[in-house]
M23 family metallopeptidase (Streptomyces lienomycini), 291 residues
Amino acid sequence: MSARKLAMVTFRALQLAFVALVAVGVLFDPGVPWWCVFLPLVLAYVLITVVNRWNGGAPDAPGRSREPVEVAPPVAGRWSALNSPADRTPSHGIHAYGQTFAIDLVAEPEPGARPGFRALWPLARRPRDFPAFGAPLLAVADGTVVRVEDGRRDHLSRTSLPALLYLMVVEGSVREMAGVRRIVGNHLVLDLGDGTHALYAHVQRGSRTVREGDRVRAGQVLARCGNSGNSTEPHVHFQLMDGPDPDTARGIRFTWRGIGVPRNGEVFDAPEPATVPSGSPASPVSPTSRD
């Protein structure tokens, strides 16, 4: 186990220790000093701060200093960008999980097609209410599939104030303690060669068309956009990283051929691939796990 992986496992163990101490205190009143209860939580966030700096690296670290890797966009059609590295890095607020230069995409086929945020009602919407749900995810370059998971459910949106608070305070914390797979949900990782890996997160359950070990070509349909994992609505989370495991990888800069890196709120049109090879036959997944 690498030092980074061990640090992330320890981080989650400390969080679980805090929850256990709180539960013991509520149920049995053992008389433990309050600072002992909060000590694992403090240590956990000291550790994740260290990991965050570690994964971010120095200004001349490999993922930060190398030229952006040019690849094709992972989608086709009309989309807009959220949490873009063109506006800030780390784009999602932390370097952890290899997402220093990650980007989120939501489908914008026409004005008003995507339901907006509501303060109170509706509390949540079905994934199919969003135009991104079910959109094809395309291989950004020739590569090899090294990770595939698509047995987790696509949950309702978190696009109201109560639902967003639930995500931030309860659901997000539980997923973080459960591990990176609960955070990214259904996902695929491609090895593009030269130490570069592409991650597609929040994939639609049961939609993958490839298996681990398959060779894929640029433009090939790999799966479809979903709303699994730590997601507010169906969207594409895409990132390049220097390893196959988001727990230990560092982010790598990317640029999309013919597009660049769209800024937050920027609407862009990604062209359809000239040819879209069919994916390798894939047997249905038996969904043995649930969120």
The chain has two domains: 3-56, 62-270.
